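Sequence, structure tokens quoted for completeness.
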Amino acid sequence: MGFTSRLSDELTPRHIGRRAAVRVRLPEGGFRDIVGVLESWQDGVIRMRRRDGSVTEVTAADVAGSRIVPQQPPTRRRGAGSRDEA
């Protein structure tokens, strides 16, 4: 069985506001994955907001693959009615 990438080149400027996974080629070789909400795509620069609120910029030419991913589900709070309490 061979390796099958789940990434494609589907990310485009029309996906602004959607959550995406982007694989970026690093200058020293290798790759880095970024997951976040696509905030802007202007003049070949992609801005993504990560879960922690930080913004990461990457050059579109450095993107090796990408895909749209489901929105992150809201965090669940355990309350007084939780089944985990005894």
Summary: The chain is about 0% helix and 40% strand. The CA atoms of residues 24 and 63 lie 5 Å apart. The first strand starts at residue 19 and ends at 25. Strands lie at 19-25, 31-42, 45-49, 55-59, 63-68.
